[in-house]
User: Fold this.
Amino acid sequence: MAHDRNLRMVLDDVEAWKAAIQTELDKPKFKRSTGPRNLPHPVVHEDLDDWMASWVQSGLPAIRIHDAGDFFAEWYLDAWTQIAESNPALLFYCYTKEVSLFRRASHGFPQNFRFLFSTGGLEDALIGDERHADVFPTQDAMDSAGYRSQDANDLLAVMLPTNRIGITANNIKHFNKKMAGRTFGQIAKDTANR
Assistant:
């Protein structure tokens, strides 16, 4: 119900929704520094660009956009980039299957807005060598494919010095059966070829 309520607010009045997000981001917990952030292993400062290194030193929070769902329209993506621009000291990051939508974003993205493509969608063939994540049935399969794991800390998805981010699948019996040893990207490709 909360997801439906939030979606309805975005669709009905995006400006009111942006104001509500900003009100939340103005709370002290988003302004409070915890001191320099410990980098998640195996990232080192030399792996980071200037903005990311500064954010690590600030100790300010990161905001993951969507724990479920995705960007559904360019105006909605624009709303999130405007929120990021209004909060330049915070890190905003997301996974997305909307490759075409992100490529059409003519305005570009602020330094504090980081994204990676997530395989298993309809546009996997468009990803190329850009930063992306794939879900693997095992750590060994991930290692064999040359992907680096973000399992220890989700921030690794936007901090590791690679474009090939791996996630190991949750150990859920019916999902493991459906994966049948394949990655999400392979499942999407197999489905598209039917």
Q: What stands out?
A: The chain has one domain: 2-192. The radius of gyration is 18 Å. The chain has a mean pLDDT of 93. Residues 74-86 form the longest helix (13 residues).
